[in-house]
Design brief:
Layout (H helix, E strand, L loop, with lengths): L4 H5 L11 E7 L2 H10 L7 E7 L18 E7 L10 H16 L4 E4 L3 E4 L2 E13 L2 E11 L5 H8 L1 H6 L3 H5 L5 H22 L1 H10 L6 E7 L2 E10 L5 E5 L4 E4 L3 E4 L1
Parallel strand pairs: 1-2
Antiparallel strand pairs: 2-3, 3-7, 4-5, 5-6, 6-7, 8-9, 8-12, 9-10, 10-11
The chain binds biotinyl-5-AMP (BT5).
Length: about 260
């Protein structure tokens, strides 16, 4: 059943984000719907929510498991005046906003580069940002957020199956009780606007700082897999564009735009 958008709107005091909310029972992917809307000129701050997704997407054609009735699947349209190079910062804006929202509920969530949120080292949420550019400038960015909210361990195992269930968690599993989905979505939209405004007002450094404060793997030994290559070293931070800085074992520094990180 679709999440009532008027109930979310009723709790919002934002200027732009969530001024228009499209809520669906089921879609293929909220990112796909939002991308289509943005291509047709939908304004900044437009939100697309679905109760379930039949083709929920992760990065690199991976799947995002999206059962109905209990989770969050939401995409937001942004039209920031930034270059395409800087666009990964939008993923960090969403990561900080979501971590803050989850922790206000009493959890102990942390960010993982580039697009994950973890609780007790397991993945509770993922973010998928997709951009349309004109020349070097961003035309729009769709930021998609998927988070497991009211799933029990049994449901995680039934819905996700062995391998994914092992690395996944939910807010309910972490807190030991269910959360109010509408309230959480409203809180998240408020946090997203707050951090987006910080980005526009103060630039990327404030977002980077906020993200680094919620990143516990700083200075850990890592293996980074990107474009079929593997880099080994110490992850020391993220640069102004949200790229991961790795001090390699041979002493050289590498900046990674996209990849998967394994702690070693
Ligand atoms: C992500 O990709 O983590 C980005 C996920 C973004 C999902 C949202 S939902 C709203 C919007 N609409 C969409 O279609 N997508 C966005 P990635 O880092 O590539 O991670 C994908 C991997 O996470 C999968 O290969 C699984 O291992 C794991 N996974 C899949 N579903 C999961 C779930 N529900 N909870 C935890 N882990 C999951």
């Amino acid at each position: 059943m679709k999440i009532p958008s008027d109930k979310i709107s009723g709790q919002l005091q934002t200027d732009t984000v969530g001024k228009t909310i499209f809520s669906f029972d089921e879609v293929g992917s909220t990112n796909e719907v939002a991308f289509e809307l943005a291509s047709k000129g939908a304004p900044e701050g437009t939100v697309v929510i679905a109760d379930s997704q039949s083709k929920g997407r992760g990065r690199l054609k991976r799947k995002w498991i999206s059962p109905p009735g209990e989770n969050l699947y939401m995409s937001v349209i942004f039209r920031p005046s930034i270059s395409s190079r800087e666009s990964p910062i939008m993923t960090l804006v969403a990561a900080v906003a979501l971590t803050e929202t989850l922790n206000k509920q009493g959890s102990d969530a942390e960010v993982k580069w580039p697009n994950d949120i973890l609780i007790n080292k397991r993945k509770i949420a993922g973010i998928l940002s997709q951009m349309q550019s004109t020349g070097e400038d961003v035309d729009f960015v769709v930021v998609g957020i998927g988070a497991n909210l009211n799933m029990t361990r049994e449901e995680i195992e039934n819905e996700m199956g062995g391998e994914v269930a092992e690395i996944a968690t939910s807010l309910q599993e972490a807190l030991g009780h269910e959360v109010d989905r509408v309230k959480l979505i409203a809180n998240l939209i408020e946090q997203i606007e707050l951090w987006y405004k910080k980005l526009l007002r103060d630039g990327t450094s404030v977002v980077i700082k906020g993200w680094m404060e919620r990143w516990r793997a700083v200075n850990s030994k890592v293996l980074v897999k990107c474009n079929g290559e593997t880099i080994q070293g110490i992850a020391t931070g993220v640069d102004e564009n949200g790229h991961l800085i790795v001090e390699k074992d041979d002493g050289r520094t590498e900046k990674v735009v996209a990849g998967d990180v394994i702690l070693i």
